[in-house]
Amino acid sequence: MGTIDGLDLGTYGIYTFDFEHLLATGMREAIRELERQGWRAFWFPEVGGHEALTQAGHLLAATERMHIVNAIAQITPRTPSATHSGAALLAAAYPDRHVLGLGVGAIARKPLAAMAEYLDELDALTDDGRPPIRRILAAYGPKMLELARDRAAGAHTYHVTVSHTEQAREILGPNSFLGVEHAVLFETDPDRAREIAREHLVPYLTTPYNLAKFHRLGYTEADTSGGGSDRLVDDLVFWGEPASIADRLRAHVAAGADHVAVQVIGVEPGRSAVSQWRTLAETLLPQPVTV
């Protein structure tokens, strides 16, 4: 499980927005702590903080074994040539440790056409015998998943349900990689857990493409309005005790995910998720946690 073109990321990894606005020293300390805890893969987005490939290089340089996954590097800010040059350097400097996750991000024209055109330009560039660039695509709908199957090593999904994972695996087939992000919250009180989860979900329940994704999965307008129904919130954010959270994450693997990137939410401003990451490592990872 967890293999992208020969890279073994393990079955579970960590996903976070937290690094987007950390200073370089803070990123270095946090990623080294994750490596000490036994995590083998770290996923991070590009949403207005650090430039994606530069940040990936910094994290690779700070670690010895960790796989670093751009999830995602947006195609809008960089030309295909710039993306190829940066990713090729990372592949050569840190063999078998970097994964280039590409996504459309904020773009006016049709996302499927934009991604296909971008991939055409990437594929026209030669590698000159350099190490391979492993790439995956952010994908939700059937056509983008098909593109990820046919033009990349696989797909990365974000804020999806276990049923979506089943559908994605069916489209991708048995040989393409499927990495699934899922949010978790260490809170056992249902009212408090759902309150925090709804705050987190506001951007995803107010954007048309996310709403379309949820409606395709069978959720109604009533489910996606008013902050989200309990059913939808509980499906998108796994909350409770660590053992019950782990069991729900394992459902993605049973449904066809090769790898689950776990995003801890509900951490107080100014505090770190390090302790929650450690608890997850003790619960999910096969190897003992080191100090």
UniProtKB/TrEMBL annotation:
Top-level lineage group: Bacteria
Pfam families, A to Z: Bac_luciferase
Keyword check for Transport: no
Keyword line: Oxidoreductase
Coiled coil: none
Alphabetized GO MF terms: oxidoreductase activity, acting on paired donors, with incorporation or reduction of molecular oxygen
Sequence ranges assigned to domain Luciferase-like in this UniProt record: 27-259
Statement: the UniProt record of this protein carries the keyword Cell wall biogenesis/degradation: no
InterPro entries in UniProt: F420-G6PD/mer, Lucif-like_OxRdatse_MSMEG_4141, Luciferase-like_dom, Luciferase-like_sf
Designated name of the protein: LLM class F420-dependent oxidoreductase
